User: Which sequence fits this backbone?
């Protein structure tokens, strides 16, 4: 019996005077799973993003299974001119980050971009490169992998 059918049957009991409105409310609340929100279907963009980070980007770090990243949001997709591999390039990309442990186990956040085509197919990923402890990281992006997900 579906939830809607159960609610209809319980509502009928209230109409017949068997249940009070308060009892009906408690019974309907009991039909809801507690603390568990239903898993929403992931969009193709979400799946592609998660698969690419998990199967391509994460493998470049010391502990791929411990790499964490934010959920995909359409606001992460950008179009524009950026400095990539020492050249100004006009590309479409996802701007995000990964949190990955260093050799001491401390989680460090790395800003990354994932270049995509108009069909949302990942083309490469890139990150800023550490110049030196004093100079810090580059402002531009360096391609780390051109593997497809």
Assistant:
């Amino acid at each position: 019996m579906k939830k809607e059918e159960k609610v209809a049957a319980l509502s009928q009991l209230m109409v017949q005077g068997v249940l009070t409105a308060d009892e009906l409310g408690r019974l309907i609340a009991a039909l809801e799973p507690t603390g568990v929100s239903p898993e929403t279907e992931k969009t193709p963009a979400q799946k592609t993003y998660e698969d690419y980070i998990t199967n391509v980007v994460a493998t470049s770090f010391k502990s791929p299974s411990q790499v964490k990243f934010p959920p995909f949001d359409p606001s992460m997709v950008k179009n524009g001119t950026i400095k990539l591999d020492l050249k100004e390039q006009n590309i479409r990309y996802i701007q995000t980050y990964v949190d990955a442990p260093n050799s001491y186990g401390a989680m460090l956040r790395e800003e990354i971009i994932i270049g995509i085509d108009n069909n949302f197919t990942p083309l490469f990923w890139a990150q800023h490169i550490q110049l030196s402890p004093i100079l810090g990281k580059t402002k531009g992006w360096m391609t780390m992998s051109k593997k497809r997900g």
Remarks:
- The radius of gyration is 24 Å.
- The chain has three helices and seven strands.
- Helices lie at 3-15, 21-31, 44-57.
